[in-house]
Amino acid sequence: MNPNNYSEKEIKEIIKEVLNELYKKDKILIKNETHEITISHKIACYLTNKFENWDVDCEYNRDLENPKECSYNSNETKYIRPDIIIHQRNIKNNLLVIEIKKNAKYADKQQDIQKLKCMIKEYNYKYALFINIQTETQKTSCIWNFDKEFNEF
C-alpha cells in the first residue's frame, strides 16, 4: 500500500477492518447507546493505526489557520466540524472525511451527505463516507463517495 495514495479498494478494506474491530472490542458503546462522539473517537483511534503518515482527527474545524465553513441546505454559511477526517495538517492534502450517525433518519442522512459534498467541493477531500450505526440491530451501513457520487456499500 502506498502510504500517500490509497485506492478506493484499500480504503473500503480498512473501513471494514475498523468497523469489525469496533464491534469486536467496543460493542458495549453501541449496545449502551453511547453518544456518537464517543463512537467516532474509537473509530478514529483504530483508523490512526491504519493510516501511516496521515493525521486522523475528530471534530477538526480548521483549514490551515482558517475555520472550516460550508453553505449547504440553505444560503447561510455555517462553521463545520466533520466527525472524522484523515488529512495532513498544515498542508492542503485531504484524503477522507467521515460523518457518523446512530439510527439516522432520512433527513439526518441527507443533511450529512450535503455536508460531505460541500467538504469535497470546498476542501478537496479525495473520498467521503457516511456511516450509519443501527444500535438496535447492531448493523452498520456505509454510503461512499467515489467519483463524486454517493453509493451505498
State the share of residues found in helices, binned by percent.
25-40%
The main β sheet shows up as: 6 strands, mixed
Sequence of strands across the biggest β-sheet: 1-6-7-8-9-10
Distance between the termini: 22 Å
Poorly predicted spans: none
H/E element string? HHHEEEEEEEHEEE
Shape descriptor reads globular
Rg of Cα set: 15 Å
Quick one: how many beta strands? 10
Mean pLDDT: 86
Strand content: 25-35%
Number of helix segments? 4
Q: How does the helix and strand content classify structurally? A: alpha+beta
List the helices and strands and how they pair.
Layout: H1 8-25, H2 27-31, H3 36-48, E1 55-58, E2 62-63, E3 66-67, E4 69-71, E5 77-79, E6 84-88, E7 93-102, H4 106-123, E8 127-134, E9 139-146, E10 149-152
Parallel strand pairs: 7-8
Antiparallel strand pairs: 1-6, 2-3, 4-5, 6-7, 8-9, 9-10
Helix pairs in contact: 1-3
